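Section 4.2 – Deliverable D4.2 (structural model, holo form)

The reporting period included a commitment to supply a predicted holo structure for the target in complex with N,N,N-trimethyl-histidine. Inputs used:
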Amino acid sequence: GATGVKVDVYVRPGDAKRALRTEALQGLCGSPKELSPKWLYDERGSQLFDDITRLPEYYPTRREREILLARASDVARLSGADTLIELGSGTSEKTRLLLDAMEEAGKLSRFVPFDVSEGFLRRAAYSLAREYPGITVHAVVGDFERHLGQLPGGGRRLVAFLGGTIGNFKPAQRALFLKELSAGLQPGDGLLLGTDLIKDRERLYAAYNDSAGVTAEFNRNVLRVLNRELGADFEPDAFEHFAPFDEANAWIEMRLVSRRPQSVWLSTLRRRVDFVEGEVLRTEVSCKFRQQQVEAELASAGLTLTEWWTDTAGDFALSLALK
Ligand code: AVJ
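Output (structure tokens):
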């Protein structure tokens, strides 16, 4: 239409509910118990994550913003991109920093926000189309583990995957993700990747076990999601938040620890799930990286690291890689 907005839908609301059912059955009935971090982000969970990004202990968001403020124009120039594809979110201040830099470089013609939440994505698409009237906004409602093949082609594309979200993939999943992403790129297309870096364990621990308890609420919120979506009867307060750094895997692991022996009824699945005292339900891993490892993983996917930028404290990195 006149607004220059197009929306492709590959995931519908019912799909998410079905996926949650299948995954919850698998993840809660197995041992150890585990859920995908994607279920943390209902409306309340997204709000809580937003609150996390402003906590004094949670440095990644501020550090990545610092890097983007310093480097957005380099990103625009070195990538030469006319299309920005953003995996996840798509309304943030970071998006605007990149779009502004590309516009400044005189190349910006298209923005492709890619997210699993349709309502959110539509609102983002229309508001960005108003803010950048000269460009096409082509939103894609999809799951970046399944629909990367549907990213629109043409032009010179820069895919931004920010925030350290790649850290949510375990190594095998991450390799697959990078390979699929790279397979859809043409020579000259680029990837701008945000990664949190390995640092002393006290600071890592503090970032995921904040003193105000916001991360604990964010973690327990997944139990409310299960209560609502699966007709479950979890008592969130019967679980303790604990997010230790696993040195061997170089990841933070978010856990919900059962405070006592308890049974939970999942009415939609007609299943009872038992927890012994101290039993762990893992809700997220958040991998931390070093440059050499990021470079090697990109290379295995057929991507060449061309720039490695960190904030002045060396806490977080942005990589620019080219196909
Ligand atoms: C959105 C995946 C980047 O791993 O730091 C924040 C999520 N979990 N606090 C992260 C999160 C607990 C966050 N990512």
